[in-house]
Amino acid sequence: MRINWGTGIVIGMILFIGFILYLVITMSTDKKYSHDLVTEAYYEKEMAYQDEIDAETNMQGLSNAIVGAKTKDGWLIQFPDDIIPEEVVGTLFLYRPSNKQLDFDVPIELSGSNLLIPDERLLDGRWNITMEWEYEGKKYLYKKQIVY
User: Fold this and answer.
1) Terminal CA-CA length for the chain
2) Which of 96, 137, 141 shows the shortest CA–CA distance to 117?
3) pLDDT at site 12
């Protein structure tokens, strides 16, 4: 039996569709291709996004910007000098995009107008710092991507 060009096109299309179906089924069932969302409660965080916008806007009203820098002891975050350290209440969250197990959360404890993240808690590489804090009844949010 001789195969004409019409039959060849149909066979080619069937092979292509079979290949695509194989890829789709493999990608959706194989555990090694499974990817988690960045945060566990993604949709709940999305609903609170306006509060984040307001808190970031409050940061612009500070007398001086918050500055972070690498030191020999770790990552030093400097708050404006006119802030009373005892009245700052909040948490500092460090997120490591490459490894979920390295993420950690600590309460904000200022020493003067400085906050030090110790060197032994940070590995070299990229970190996302998210600092949520409250001062004089206003909420503030500081976000920064750093390379330590």
Assistant:
1) 69
2) 96
3) 95
